[in-house]
Amino acid sequence: MRKNSIKNTRINGEVRRVLSSIIQNDIKDPRIHPMTSVVEVEVAPDLKSAKAYISVLGDEEAQKDTLAGLKSAEGYIRRELARTVNLRNTPEIRFIMDQSIEYGVHMSRLIDDVNQNSLEEGDEDDQAEE
Q1: CA–CA separation, 33 vs 50, rounded Å?
Q2: Exposed, middle or buried by CB within 10 Å (0-12, 13-18, 19+), for 122?
Q3: Cβ atoms of residues 21 and 58 within 8 Å
Q4: Which has the closest alpha carbon to 38: 60, 66, 61?
Q5: What angle is formed at CA 43 by the lines to CA 102 and CA 46, rounded to 5 degrees?
Q6: What is the pLDDT of residues 77-88, one digit of tens each?
């Protein structure tokens, strides 16, 4: 199976959906932040390993705690994944913190600040002309 095949894309989507459900509903670890989402899952073509990109809405401490909680629950998560998704091999999951949402929010704030400043300067120029 090639990396970008339709089958691999479907497996990635299904694993992401089930992984998100397990993290939100089944894990009771207090270290895992309630606003944790699975952004993307990349399952290797041989189905032996998977990278799960996790996003946490919170400070850096909450992100570290969530990652530690997920790493400690890896065995449980893998077992639940095997029970739910019918695959030849259940992939070994590696959790990776994804900063893309936080980066997007930061860039959006910067753009809003620039727009606000240009509007204020435009108002001052209009008043100076009068």
Answers
A1: 22
A2: exposed
A3: no
A4: 66
A5: 160
A6: 999 999 999 888
